[in-house]
Amino acid sequence: MPCNLEPCQPPQEWRVGIWGLCSVSCGDGVTERTLQCVSADAQESHRCSQEAMPEAKKACRNPNCHLPSSCQGVQSTNGPLPDSEHFLNIQGKALKVYCAGMQTETPQEYITLTTGEGENFSEIFGFRLNDPTQCPPNDSRREDCDCRRDYTAAGFTTFSKVRLDLSKMNLITTDWQFAVTREGKSVPFATAGDCYSAARCPQGRFRINLSGTGFRVAQEASWISQGNYAVTDIRKSQDGSSVSGMCGGYCGKCTPSSGSSLPVTVE
């Protein structure tokens, strides 16, 4: 009769971690824990039974969440209030939103851009090259270029808050209530352009940085070029928290493909 006298493999078992925080602060979410297969001598293994594997995630719920879902809800619960920050239940998460117009019948939601105006601005560059078929060496700009400053659409606008359309989860790019136009004409959020050159060296810039707000630019957000010789260079961070753009032409600009709105999501 055949037999096998090789040493037996030490027993393997699943070791589980503690359940993590619920993925949402309001309503239904998911919680997860770590799983590790180890041998009797506590060495990592890959021989545990898959049938005996414990669950790594499960549904969870925060039953103590009674936050309003809009500034109108805050107003209806508390009556007229000064304009200020409030926590709202947005897609199951408690996020801080600035409520403006709380003394009116139609209060509006704004995201406070915690990274500041230096990280949230839009520019239509005002100079144009005297020879638009060239790009100056070393991407030189402004006063050190052989150019003139006569582009009437030029402007530079910074933003401290940006309007949020909760029903569509869009930022409204043409709301300037909490924007400052430092020079020229008001430029919408997430927009840039110039009339600098026809040779693909755009000088108009925009920057968006939603870090610290709980919101992110949606993955499907995109930009389109408009105008003559238009060039658009858009760079998004991997997590969608920030976007920067260099755009222009002779004359050209870039705007969100969705028009005067920019889709966002919660973290």
Automatic annotation (TrEMBL):
SUPFAM superfamilies on file: TSP-1 type 1 repeat (SSF82895)
Protein name (database record): GON domain-containing protein
Pfam families on file: GON, TSP1_ADAMTS
Signal peptide: none
Family annotation (PROSITE patterns): GON (PS51046), TSP1 (PS50092)
UniProt entry keywords in alphabetical sequence: Metal-binding
GO molecular function: metalloendopeptidase activity; zinc ion binding
Domain of life from the UniProt record: Eukaryota
InterPro entries: Pept_M12B_GON-ADAMTSs, TSP1_rpt, TSP1_rpt_sf
Domain GON positions: 67-267
